[in-house]
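note to self: dont lose this again. the chain is below, predicted strucutre after it. 294 aa total, dont forget to put it in the shared folder this time
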Amino acid sequence: MAQAAGDNDSFDRAIGAAINSVRGAATTAIAPLLFAHAARMELLGGAVDAIVRDAALSVRAVAALPLLAILRDDESKSLELFNILCEKAAPILGSQHIEEYLHHAIYRSYESVRPILVRMLESDGAAARRAAARQVCLAALHDGPSRETAMKDAARVEGGDTAMRGAAAEIYAKNCSHRDVAEQCVSNLPRFFDDEEEGVRRTAALCFRRLDADHLAEPEGLVGAFAGSAAFLHSSTPLLFQLKSMPTPASIDSPAGREGSWYVGSRSRRHQHLIGWRRRNTLRIGRPVLRSVK
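---
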């Protein structure tokens, strides 16, 4: 689920303050220099050490950028500095660049950043919980050496608070067309169609934006689970837009008597047709495939 507007505003102000300060501007300038030539770390290492310990959280909010450059060539050093950066930095743990760093780090060494992810999941800040939950779920989809641990953490996320469940639904919905993880995402999504929070249900329903007619026409897929869920009545628009160009299923008599598109006419009429399909329980629309989220 997307971050709340207040979270985004706070992080934007922090990053804006950083790039408009001398030390913050220097931090953002160091990152491309290290990306271009790793050997420059010999000259800039002292500056990077100082940046991750900076007293201003706004500066540390952008300090993950040079650390990301270092991660490519010196993983252990980068992770060491990132752990220092995250000490006593709770207000910025849900910010854009921190999550960006975690996104790349989980594929290299999930266990190394797991203590930070767990701390974020236990944070009082909803933005930090969302960011950590997203990256935990992505790690659980990744076929790496720490996948079993990540899957246990993902199970905790899926049973967590609204922020965490919404983040999990977001990851599975955004990845449900990726061929490598489609089966997992399709398997995980239905539970969110019946979530107690409408926002989580709406987030999960966005999965249908990722799926084309071929995927929706496969048997035993998301549409059947969705049609019988609590999300159906209030979050069906993404599915209706996808289905409107599909031909009438053979098992369904078109109420309009048309042989062409089943979803012709007003939205309310299309909705009635889908409800009829649901009541006859003849929805045989299958497994979507997924693509990895950024």
